[in-house]
Design a protein that fits this description.
The complex is a heterodimer.
Chain A: H1 2-29, H2 40-67, E1 68-73, E2 76-81, H3 84-105, H4 111-118, H5 126-145, H6 154-179, H7 188-205, H8 209-231, H9 236-256, H10 258-261, E3 267-268, H11 287-290, H12 298-324, H13 326-336, H14 338-343, H15 348-374, E4 376-377, H16 384-397, H17 402-418, H18 425-440
Antiparallel strand pairs in A: 1-2, 3-4
Helix pairs in contact in A: 2-3, 6-12, 6-15, 6-16, 6-17, 7-8, 7-9, 7-15, 8-15, 12-13, 12-15, 13-15, 16-17
Chain B: H1 2-32, H2 39-57, H3 65-95, H4 104-125, E1 130-131, E2 139-144, E3 150-154, H5 155-177, H6 179-189, H7 191-196, H8 201-227, E4 229-230, H9 234-249, H10 254-274, H11 280-294
Antiparallel strand pairs in B: 1-4, 2-3
Helix pairs in contact in B: 1-5, 1-8, 1-9, 1-10, 2-3, 2-4, 2-8, 2-9, 3-8, 5-6, 5-8, 6-8, 9-10, 9-11, 10-11
Classes of the chains: A mainly alpha, B mainly alpha.
Amino acid sequence: MANSTEESALSTSAVGAEIEDERRAEAVRGEPPFTVNPPSGDAFGAALKDAIISALIALALAGPMVGLRTETAIGGLSLTQNWMPVAAIVAVVFFGRLFLTLFVWGRSSGIRSVAATSFRLLPSGTQLSNWKVPGLIGAIAFTIVMPFLPFADRYWMDQAIVILTYCMLGWGLNVVVGLAGLLDLGYVAFYAVGAYSFALLATNFDLGFWVCLPMAGILAAGWGLILGFPVLRLRGDYLAIVTLAFGEIIRVVIINWYDFTNGPDGISGIPRPTLFGIPFDRSDEGFAAIFGLEYSSIQRIIFLYYIILVLALITNFVTLRLRRLPVGRAWEALREDEIACRSLGINTTNTKLTAFATGAMFGGFAGSFFATRQGFISPESFTAIESFIILAVVVLGGLGSQLGIVIAVIFLNTAFEVLRELQEYRMLIVGLAMVLIMVWRPRGLISTRHPSITLKGKAKAVRAELVGEGSG
Amino acid sequence: MEYFTQQLINGVTLGSIYGLIAIGYTMVYGIIGMINFAHGDIFMVGSFVGLIAVVVLGISAATPFFLLILALLVVIAIAMALTAVWGWTVERIAYRPLRGSFRLAPLITAIGMSITLQNFVQISQGARVKPVQPIVTGGYTLMESADGFVVQISNIQIIIIVLTVVLMAGFTMLINKTSLGRAQRACEQDARMASLLGINVDRTISLTFVMGAALAAVAGVMFVLYYGVIDFYIGFLAGVKAFTAAVLGGIGSLPGAMLGGLLIGLIETFWSAYFSIEYKDVAAFSILVIALIFLPSGLLGRPEVEKV
């Protein structure tokens, strides 16, 4: 008996010591300690200590990787030393951490969490709905007249086309991830299927863009069903990894099936889209000649811009309408709670399959547009990173939010363009930005939701915290 | 028969490497329920740290045997230590602030981290592949067939297999016997309850990442020594396959991760040997899909109980 009490006393003291240690470690790490007002004299010392530890970690991270660069040399590898960048990185980490601890984080421990929840990018609720209709009309009007505005040269049109393509892909993936809550990491597979179906149909059977577009969409939707069937039983992250694997399988098959897809060399000579059979070229039957205009290559670009604008708007419109149909409501119900769905008699199999097929179809459309715009496709364009970027757009924008996706696409595209000067540092910064934005706003840029159907009266925006997670 | 034996040896070697990476996935998934997408890139960083250590120490095939073994152990220790710091940092920056938050958010930060690590290594070490002269050479002939096909097990293969077995045994001990392992298992079962019982959950999760990164670093060093060529992109494919291994073995289960790694390694090797080398990745992924359809909780995993 005595023995056991002694033992328990020992273990308590051991736990006490451990807690003491942890407290000390916490304080060293610079996280807000449990005291309400930390003594101010100690604060600088603690911050300094914390900054020194951070700097040491930075040194351990960057030292060997940046300081010692391996170069291919005759008879093996040689080392080049460059310690200046290491010193710079360590200095930045040290002073940055010191500054942040003393002046940003140290002030009030509560500020960060309060700011994170109360800050809204857009005014929520009724304020937003007042601006919604004029804003929407204004935005659509702007996109329609944009090609004729004075600043719209080749560069801006290309950017606009890229932005719209990604908007369309984002909206398509949003059906699967945002509405149905099925995490799809292989969306680029459908994009690839669309692009390759169009390219193969066009080059082998001499079909035009407008004939192939619906076929590409149907084929991609078919692949969506084929993928959908086996993965129906999977949930959450398992689904994610299987879709990722599926995306890779498609890419590997495209690379290796040389006779059919021309392998890594890709397919070139994909026909350009025509306006009711009128091509956009220099010939007498060309667009410029028939309409009595002077030939310019920008005409084709503008035409492409309108095609993708219409396709993207159709995607958006169809998605918005589908949300009001029983199938769309079933998607959202499935996202919120699958078990409840099943017990209410919703056929979850069909619901998931339709979500997959619909998303895949839009991906297929976007893919065939991509093929006709580029005139050349190769497996290089359909890597997993592309899937990640599309998913990042959906999540950064705020799952299920159509407007958020547009904002996220414009943001990412602008970031890519602004950072173009930095060349190889571009992706590094984009990667870090993705991390920081998610830490700052885990629910995405637009995190409020508008219910697609209400009992009566106006729909009120639902705060992000109250929305289901899409755990599919 | 001889050909089969040779492929078996190659497959077990490859499977050991996958298994070591898969442990990192399975532990992280077990404890916080997320796919650590950056883990494949942690493996890649580990292989680069190992490569740099090899070059700094000036190890080559000419180094005497005992010195070579000693030097390799030093390389592995350095790689484990530095890569563990990377693993810790990734967790601290990208995952800890999002603990208990929206489920997809850490997935996106993981993808962001993966992009960051790849590009960091690409910038700091260059985009070209890094060839390494073979360091551990020689081997043993096991059998020889009538038509002259020689079955060999090379020294590096022996080192990889032995090291993996030792590490696995040590690691299993760590998880099953030590207080750290107990804390780790407790957090895996119920993080909130564990924290009520005085376990520092955050620290345990950090240590999980540290351990996973250290094992991935060993896999990285082995990869450098075995294949003799690395680049900044090896992490992606190795990562996906290791995750496949973790899922196949039953995610959250340590022996499962090892078994899954072995199976994936064997499948890939036999597929390349008997069918076509181009489609070996397809084979690995198809196995994943098939396994998940018929065995959703993996070979050694516990079936998930759905609570309403």
